[in-house]
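Protocol step 4 of 6: structure prediction from sequence.
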Amino acid sequence: MSGKTTEKASGSKPRPPRDDMRREYRFDYRKARPNRFAAMLKGGTTAVVLDPDVASVFESPESVNRLLRSVIAALPANVKPRRPRG
């Protein structure tokens, strides 16, 4: 932020518009390019954060996946969730 001071939110006055900000922007979407990172999301990778005590049991992400796959395989067929792949 710049060296300007701001008033508290409870009694603040509306700020005048900044000189470098427009009231409205119009984007030319014809010039837009595809997101180069979108292909990475198609793999269906999901990050899961383990609690430290749980994470300390596993040596690697592969060991976590191996255990989870064995648990899934042990589930009765009517309990296994069916997610569309793609």
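Step 5 (inspection) to follow. The mean pLDDT is 79.
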